[in-house]
Amino acid sequence: MTLNFETLKATLVLYGLNAVVAILLLVLGWYASGIAERFVSRVLAATHRIDALVTVFLSSLARYAVLVVVGIAVLQLFGIQTASLVAVLGATSLAIGLALQGTLSNLAAGVMLLLFRPFRIGDDVEVAGKAGKVQALSLFMTELIAADNTQILLPNGSVWGSAIINHSTYPGTGEVKVSFPVRAGRPIERIGEQILKHLREDSRIEPRPVPEVHVSKVVDISDAVHPIVELTVSAKANPAEADAVKQRLMDLVSTMLADANATRPEPSRAAG
């Protein structure tokens, strides 16, 4: 058997050139994939509405898409039929997708949650029959912390497919309202004056609308002279400070009621 050196030489030159072109394609593809990743990352980051985790996921997806295209082009350079390879990969992907459809549905739901952001970290939510504060949100799981400091892990598929009640979306009105029972007469006037003075001196209270103290309703009329009525205090404060103002007001009212009860004279008893 004779060896045809001319044919061997031509073959080596052809495959050598193909190898050089393949290496160049791989190098260029590697740099192009990095450029595509950075471009997608910058575009998504500029919107300020897409979570960082989604940005990383989509930018990595763009990079691997470029690498896949470059890999197919390199295989074609060496005469490998990529059509059958793509068909095999497609069938394999379909089988894997059917086997992991639950996991993939959680992944898709996680992407949708991260894109549309129905809630954010730290929000108080009710979802899928559970209530708590959002601690973390990943592509597969949503983590809540219940009121008793219990960890709740929810698959993203169940979160995206159920009603979401977010108690933190809209800020509070800042309304401060406290109601308490007190005896009618002079004590109620004195307590009302002291409360209004305190509210006017508190810098956290907004001047409009004007704070007010009024009788809400009659609670007990067993004592015809001094019936027990419900006194309601209402004011407007900064939403972020409303809870602190309300707590301070409740402490003040408790102190006033304790002093009023301590100074109230004992009812006289009929002589036997």
Automatic annotation (TrEMBL):
Annotated GO MF terms: mechanosensitive monoatomic ion channel activity
Cellular component GO terms held in the UniProt record: plasma membrane
Description of how the protein assembles with itself and partners: Homoheptamer.
Record carries keyword Lyase: no
Pfam families, alphabetized: MS_channel_1st (PF21088), MS_channel_1st_1 (PF05552), MS_channel_2nd (PF00924)
Protein name, as recorded: Small-conductance mechanosensitive channel
TM annotation in the entry: 12-32, 53-79, 85-116
Job of this protein: Mechanosensitive channel that participates in the regulation of osmotic pressure changes within the cell, opening in response to stretch forces in the membrane lipid bilayer, without the need for other proteins. Contributes to normal resistance to hypoosmotic shock. Forms an ion channel of 1.0 nanosiemens conductance with a slight preference for anions.
Ranges of residues in domain Mechanosensitive ion channel MscS: 103-168
Record-annotated Mechanosensitive ion channel transmembrane helices 2/3 domain positions: 61-101
Localization annotation: Cell inner membrane; Cell membrane
Organism: Bradyrhizobium uaiense
Key words of the record: Cell inner membrane, Cell membrane, Ion channel, Ion transport, Membrane, Transmembrane, Transmembrane helix, Transport
Top-level taxon of the source organism: Bacteria
Similarity remark: Belongs to the MscS (TC 1.A.23) family.
Bilayer topology annotation: Multi-pass membrane protein
